[in-house]
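Lecture 7 notes: from sequence to structure.

We start with a single chain of 287 residues. Read the sequence below before looking at the structure.
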Amino acid sequence: MGQSKQSFIDYDGFVEKFKPKKTTDDCYTPPEVMEVVNRYVERRWGLDRADFVRPFYPGGDYEGYEYPDGCVVVDNPPFSMLAKIRRFYMAHGIPFFLFCPTLTAFGSFDERCCVILSDSRITYENGATVNTGFVTSLPSPNVAESEPDLGDAINAVCDELRHRTVKKLPKYEYPPEVLTAARMKWYAAHHTRYAVPKGECCKISALDSQRAVGKGIFGDGLLLSERAAAERAAAERAAAERAAAERAAAERAAAERAAAEAAEVWTLSERERAMQALIGGTHGQEK
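Now the structure, written as tokens:
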């Protein structure tokens, strides 16, 4: 065969070499988000979803893609190539509705297109979370729009996806006689010292009331003696007082920062005001 046994040991690594790699520029969109965007485009422009095409996929070539007559590109392209992609579609008369990063949405301004900003914060399948807007060549009297309803719909879907993927641990409250590692961490976070002396506790994995319903203490806990429990109650009060004081201090600091960090105000020059007077005509009259 000419192959050693060792060559088959890392089979997963061998297979991995042939998988397409996702980079930070490959922002693959969750299907649930695409569904929201497709519905929006359908409703607003009265289009048939059967005419939507998505040429941006791993290994895809949007320039060599066969675009059917009457199709509309509704897709999320690589953001670093967005200006080039828009020019290609405009030159070939292919209508599009494309995702774009919000903060640079005006970077490749084209008066024939409309930028739609929707306050959408999307977590893509490569793990990147991006403030996302859209740019389209579909008919619009505007060059820029804010679209709150689209943003609300996308953010609602993204919130639901996050809730599905984040494993939530149950929140339990224990009596003063039971100490968990998480609570000791909370004491440390609020600069409160507390120690359990040797001989003043025993390890437990669940209370009897928990066992009755098939539950337990995550990571186990300590059942404290009466003396250790009393000392813990004092530490609990001290930590709670410090936590309240820290919250109040943080709120004051935030208010002070907000007052100090006023936005820098820029104004128009006389040249720019002259330019403004020529845009669309003063008082709406063409010049």
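Residues 1-8, 20-24, 282-287 have pLDDT under 50 and may be disordered. Keep this in mind for problem set 3.
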